[in-house]
Amino acid sequence: MCGIVGYIGKQQAGPVLLDGLKKLEYRGYDSAGIAVYDEFAKKTEIVKAKGRLSALVEKTDGGKSLKGTCGIGHTRWATHGEPSELNAHPHFSDDGKVVAVHNGIIENYAELKQKLLNKGYEFYSQTDTEIATKLICYYYEKYGNDPVTAMERFILRTRGSYAIAVMFYDFPREIYVARKDSPMIIGVSDGEAFLASDVPAILKYTRNVYYIGDREIARLTDGGVTFYNVDREVIQKELVEIKWDAEAAEKGGYEHFMMKEICEQPKVVKDTINCAVKDGKVDFSEIGVTDEQLKAFKQVYIIGCGSAYHVGMVALYVMEKLARVPTRVELASEFRYRSPLIDENTLVVVISQSGETADSLAALREAKKLGATTLAIVNVVGSSIARDADFVFYTKAGPEISVATTKAYSTQLIACYLLAIKMARVNGSIDETRENELIAELTTIPDKISELLKDEREIQQFANVVAAKSNVFFVGRGEDYAVCMEGSLKLKEISYIHSEAYAAGELKHGTISLIEEGTLVIGVLTQDELYEKTISNMVETKSRGALIMGVTVKGRENVESTADITVYVPKTDPLFTASLAVVPLQLLAYYVSAYKGYDVDKPRNLAKSVTVE
Ligand code: G6P
Hints:
It is a single chain. By secondary structure, the chain is an alpha/beta fold. The chain folds into three domains: 3-242, Glutamine Phosphoribosylpyrophosphate, subunit 1, domain 1 (4-Layer Sandwich), CATH 3.60.20; 251-443, 3-Layer(aba) Sandwich (Rossmann fold); 457-595, Glucose-6-phosphate isomerase like protein, domain 1 (Rossmann fold, 3-Layer(aba) Sandwich). It is built from 19 helices and 27 strands. Helix 9 links the parallel strand 18 (299-304) and strand 19. Helix 4 packs across helix 5 (147-157), helix 7 packs parallel to helix 13 and helix 17 runs parallel beside helix 19. The longest helix has 20 residues, at 407-426. It binds 6-O-phosphono-alpha-D-glucopyranose. The site of 6-O-phosphono-alpha-D-glucopyranose has 16 residues, from helix 9.
């Protein structure tokens, strides 16, 4: 969603801000703006543009037309008010002395606006950010022109989520920041300070960052940061080194991040296995959860949004088959509002790449409130979900830039398999030999993904057939159904083709009426005991004119008597086939989108990290 950057240092701020915003483009946005304080002219210049960042780059000559070495910038993804220059950030007070950019949603904006209208403030945009800016201005003037007090009052008076960066005209070499439930990090290097809503924006400049906590304030100066709690007391923070290297957030010769990230899967899957497997055994000592704790859980809830939820769908099958613990998977947005029956005997697993998804974070908090133990499977170190959870399993996907997730999904699957194996072992539903067997098989997955990636030509060629379709149905049973859900989401989000995933057994209860001559049906059939059943369902669609693509395991060549095109995945334990079957579906979605000439990495209306409800 919206992106924030900020800079104070020796360099001209404009180009640094635009460079940072460029790195945040993937998050999704529809307008952008920057504000830079010019020390010589003693004024703050603000430039905004609707649409792509390139429009702002052009308007400001790459940021060079704004003089000054201190500034803030923003990419906006419209929530309150349409995408327009007027609604774009930065927003400013009537006298121009307070300038701010903000991510999140101020829930009590209407009440605050009324208060400010009563005090004589006027409003020009439809945004809650203009209200936030003027509220800060109001408190600034009311409380002796003290920025920290103004920020404190802002925190105390607002409800909702925010990451906000503010420049006060009277404090020209300072930027003030506050956050609640919306990501923001602060980076420092020699004589410079940076702020950003996501790591890639500042990786080029520094790896040393501070995480600002909920309802805390930060004051950035040249190369220094001071933190305050909501009582305006100075607090100490630990400087953390980001291990991701800057190159990981670059395209590295690939046309799109999505393809680069698909190709990185063997490596990141291997890294994720290696971080929780020691001497051939699942080792959760770094995560901190003990065998006794795991053994005590009577049920498991797995929660996520989008692809993370689809990982949970796979995990549901694997967990119940292996660990024999009752498991449910639920969308975070549903879970958080339906008073679920959970207690201290429940393990709630929250899966999230960004660790910042608003619904997942709220679901995690709800689970904690109800007494459950929470385990987060998260990719971004120090993110809100990681910080709030009782235990964290960090996936090792590295920075994922493409909005459509691929490598993070694959690493989340691995984390779930390892959790299922561990729980199965501690509660005795598998013995040591079976654990050894499963781990040995799991370690072959990276090479098997590499093998699949070498064999993508047929999928690429088939993409032009798929591109001409307006409906695609994915069908499968068990884990295959879960993979279908992910394959269908991948296709629809980046190629804009309507697609649905169906449990193959449900076809006859509705969907089959939509099958007509030429409708594409993609069947995933990797589960031995369900193979014949799904084949029968595919035959039923074929006899009604469907074009069939099959994704199955090597050795199942008889699928070709039904399927018009088949992709074979290497053999593995049926529990782990999702890790392989998903790859051709990722590739298909990618090639269809690229064939149609779409912006693969930044699909319309979507955001990488959904930090509002
Ligand atoms: C967005 C992304 C998806 C992602 C979902 C959950 O919709 O586009 O790729 O699966 O959010 O995000 P999270 O960061 O919580 O995994």
